[in-house]
Description:
Elements: E1 4-7, E2 10-13, E3 27-33, E4 38-47, E5 50-57, E6 63-65, E7 67-70, E8 110-112, E9 118-124, H1 128-135, E10 142-146, E11 163-168
Antiparallel strand pairs: 1-2, 3-4, 3-11, 4-5, 5-9, 6-8, 7-10, 10-11
Amino acid sequence: MRFSVLLAGLAVVSAPVAAEREVRPLAEATLMDAGGSRVGTARILPRSTGVVLEVEARGMSPGPHGMHLHAVGQCNGADFANAGGHLNPDGHEHGVNNPNGSHLGDLPNVTASPEGWIKASIRTDMRPFKLIQEIFDGDGTALVIHEGADDYRTDPSGNSGKRVVCGVFERP
């Protein structure tokens, strides 16, 4: 798609406008399981009305899994504890069903297929600049997938169980 603008009698033609799926990611993460094997990827992409988080992972137990942005960009050790708690710069409690608000890092549950595959695309209207500023703060941010579903209300982690997949966001 191309568009033209008429300025002071001069026609200025822009370069083709990229389709949303062709946009360069703002952040990317390689997802690893507790054994250190690569199991997937996560990407944050800008959109005209916010951002989208795309996640693909394999080797998961079938069914729902909690997924969160964690406050520290580290994924060391089998339990990924050094990723810290959920990304929560505004000091809210956990869960979209919590009357006291939710963490910035609270994300919807994702569901693994019977074959153990997760493929999710999560849209938000958050401004890309604000989100990227939080993700690339002084200690970075990790994406963590948990063993069970998030109940969307129990503080601090939604009773989603242990951390089974983790990836640190990096600039592409």
